[in-house]
Amino acid sequence: xxxxxxxxxxxxxxxxxxxxxxxxxxxxxxxxxxxxxxxxxxxxxxxxxxxxxxxxxxxxxxxxxxxxxxxxxxxxxxxxxxxxxxxxxxxxxxxxxxxxxxxxxxxxxxxxxxxxxxxxxxxxxxxxxxxxxxxxxxxxxxxxxxxxxxxxxxxxxxxxxxxxxxxxxxxxxxxxxxxxxxxxxxxxxxxxxxxxxxxxxxxxxxxxxxxxxxxxxxxxxxxxxxxxxxxxxxxxxxxxxxxxxxxxxxxxxxxxxxxxxxxxxxxxxxxxxxxxxxxxxxxxxxxxxxxxxxxxxxxxx
Amino acid sequence: xxxxxxxxxxxxxxxxxxxxxxxxxxxxxxxxxxxxxxxxxxxxxxxxxxxxxxxxxxxxxxxxxxxxxxxxxxxxxxxxxxxxxxxxxxxxxxxxxxxxxxxxxxxxxxxxxxxxxxxxxxxxxxxxxxxxxxxxxxxxxxxxxxxxxxxxxxxxxxxxxxxxxxxxxxxxxxxxxxxxxxxxxxxxxxxxxxxxxxxxxxxxxxxxxxxxxxxxxxxxxxxxxxxxxxxxxxxxxxxxxxxxxxxxxxxxxxxxxxxxxxxxxxxxxxxxxxxxxxxxxxxxxxxxxxxxxxxxxxxxxxxxxxxxxxxxxxxxxxxxxxxxxxxxxxxxxxxxxxxxxxxxxxxxxxxxxxxxxxxxxxxxxxxxxxxxxxxxxxxxxxxxxxxxxxxxxx
Lengths: 301, 394
Prior knowledge:
The structure holds 2 protein chains of 2 kinds.
Chain A: H1 16-52, E1 55-57, E2 60-62, H2 68-75, H3 77-111, H4 116-124, H5 131-142, H6 147-154, H7 169-193, H8 197-205, H9 210-238, H10 242-248, H11 255-263, H12 269-291
Antiparallel strand pairs in A: 1-2
Chain B: H1 15-18, E1 39-48, E2 58-66, E3 70-75, H2 81-89, E4 96-101, E5 104-105, E6 116-119, H3 131-142, H4 146-159, H5 175-187, E7 193-197, H6 205-222, E8 225-230, H7 233-239, E9 242-247, E10 250-255, H8 257-262, H9 267-272, E11 277-283, E12 288-291, E13 294-297, E14 306-311, E15 317-318, E16 327-338, E17 343-349, E18 352-357, E19 368-373, E20 378-381
Parallel strand pairs in B: 3-8, 3-9, 6-7, 7-8
Antiparallel strand pairs in B: 1-2, 1-4, 4-5, 9-10, 11-12, 11-14, 12-13, 14-20, 15-19, 16-17, 16-19, 17-18
């Protein structure tokens, strides 16, 4: 607050310079966050949107404003197929991840007692390994001379290596599910761990079976955590291009791959930017829906 | 109150004996007792040893709580009182022994199938449910029709004076209000037994006093058996029909409050309930004994050569009136504590320190006062150690 000589008399309202100084102080305190948002969030998106409204003339960008890129995109059947596929893949793999991660977190929180932290750590450990390595591991498992084929042949289920496991939509879903699990798990685990044991007991005391306790108490209190985890998982899988490139083949191609292509080999930045904006918009739309489930009008003691 | 209830039975009747008399119908409040009252809840040799612990939290618990009774379990933290309660509720399973509700063995029955409700120490109201949903929860779990739930929630809230708060969330209520809602939730299903785990622990003194009355009246109105766990001796004395004093996982005494206060069975009980002078005595001829160098006369010949006597400060008469009593001494005042409504004086009788209450009499350190007491006021107690927080007076 004001410490200047002029404000020695206790005034009911601070003088204008004092108020100004205070708001300056607040601005200084906030500035790292502001710089972060402007430089890393706002500017790149403004660039992206600006580029998407320009035009590429065989690699040369002409600065004339138009929406041709978007018109081309939504007129293109390939783009529509890809957008649909990308949405389905991202939603499917994140949903699968949530379906796997939630029971996992529930069992760990409720049954593992003092070992729960160790158990949770074991699930999150894959995050310490490089993303590329994790995706590549699936290539090793599912490939033509991979672990799965080797196992099936040695047990006599098949007599020659199958190529069905790799390079398909389901391979991408499988791999992305695996990628998303730790994130969804972490968020779900935190939410479940925050629910005190006496809520379970109080519910049981009121005559609720374990299932009804889950339905009426545990699920409503942990749902926001699941929604947040789902959001993170979705953002992560929706914009991914590494996984489809490595295990997806032609049928596993996603929008991210096209963006990469437009910015790279095709050298059509405006077109790539338009796809990028579409991805961001679609992602935001899904997140907006998900965020409806993150609201919880309660305070856990 | 229940003066005819047999007083200091250290080993209360086992449940197996009382369960066969369950056909006797009884009024809501126990007014007489002939040992045949049906036990709403009984524990038979129940022990609880937590994994990893060396000493059992509760050891060989035998309890028998009667219909309509306000029963308190009193003890300091770690005495096993909450574990006892949790075994009755079903949250903990006894390591050995069994728990009986209405004569039926429920040791392996999960909490949700027991006709017992608990008021938790921290209330445990579901934070995402409004007050009406919290209170109606037990009925909803039973499949009660919606209209009936609504009506009974209204009644239950009215009973705890919380009408009008139906649409609030728990975090929008004060501690005392949450307490009332928790009570309403626990009572709405009309359980056979209501367990209260230090329900007033989180409230401030004034609120606690008014809630004590609320609880007492509520119990009288609904006629449900209450088992009340507390570490506060004044709460237990004020509320209970009978109380069990626990120490180190065992019941030291089980009796009506007055008996516990006036005839403590052990030195722990004497020290834990109210203030007392614990005198280590040595037997002399006849009914005589000495505590240090101070001679005293007892009402009966002591059984052992070395024993402990509990003498309440308020039984000690100060001044000229004490001359007529068979224990009469001149004491030196060592210390005076002014407590407002009275003075507590630590007096020295030939090296033996005594805590005395002088009422309005004004004395200072170094003064001589006359003290005396009747022989029957010095109660011989079993030596079981003293409560740590009791100031060392002996």
